[in-house]
Amino acid sequence: MTASPRQPPYAPTPHSYLPNPTLTAKINLDEEVKLSNSAGERDLYDSLAEIYSIIITLDGLEKAYIKDSIPEADYTKLCNRLLNQYKSILKDETVSREYVDIESFKKKWDIECPRATERLRVNLPVTIAEPSTSQHRSSNSSPQPRQAATGSQISLATENFITFLDALRLNMLSKDALHPLLSEVIQAVNLVTTVDFENRGKIISWLIRLNGMKVTEELGEEEARQLTFDMEAAYAGFKATLN
């Protein structure tokens, strides 16, 4: 009769393990797994999930616009809504602190979305940031004839330029004071003309710069002087298109 092979001394036998009750995890399979430990933590996760959804949706919207799959008016309305939702969520200091910035958030959650990144950086729909004849539109799209600007539209654009320059002279230099006013300037200007007039690009450059600032952050004295100079030049360029 052959002897059974000898078991190595380090190999466990079927009866060598005795569970230690102090180390054994007690898992109730019927118990709900909690992703957060408090209402505040749950709200934070919900807000971050909303931001994630906005970035993905905005990237898809930009692609649809480039492919000419959505009318300009619908694109502008949806894009503005998403940008406003994004800004509204980030007004919460807890969410903003956890979010950090767009690049940090994308890296953490492994997403790319380059078109949404650019739109959030500019903080304006492409239909407002660039003339309607922008190269972003498909070459198959035939431009519609543009009606001449009305007197009220020209007056509104002029008033918005003057209001913005007055705000600078009154030393209103914070982002939350200047960015909304400058957004109104470019939107009113676009109702009058889509021509890329002299120094128009400086309006967009300053919008992007202001958008990158913290809400309560203020421009320095040199920056304020440069902004005033650039906006006066842009205003002169705008008036030249009316002649």
Q: How does the helix and strand content classify structurally?
A: mainly alpha
What is the overall silhouette? elongated
Low-confidence stretches: 138-143
Strand content is under 5%
Fraction of helical residues? 55-70%
Distance between the termini: 114 Å
Oligomer: single chain
Number of strands: 0
- Would you tell me the overall average pLDDT? 84
Rg, Cα atoms, Å: 28 Å
Q: Tell me about the biggest sheet?
A: none
What is the helix/strand order?
HHHHHHHHHH
Determine the number of helices (DSSP H or I, runs of at least 4 residues): 10
Describe the structure.
It contains ten helices and no strands. The chain is mainly α and 243 residues long. Mean pLDDT is 84; it is low at 138-143. Helices cover 59% and strands 0% of the residues. 15% of the residues are buried. Helix 7 runs antiparallel to helix 8 and helix 9 (200-211) packs antiparallel against helix 10 (221-240). The chain has helices spanning 39-66, 72-89, 93-99, 102-109, 114-122, 126-129, 151-169, 175-192, 200-211, 221-240. It is elongated, with a radius of gyration of 28 Å.
Brief sketch in words of this structure:
With 243 residues, the protein is mostly helical. The protein is 59% helix and 0% strand.
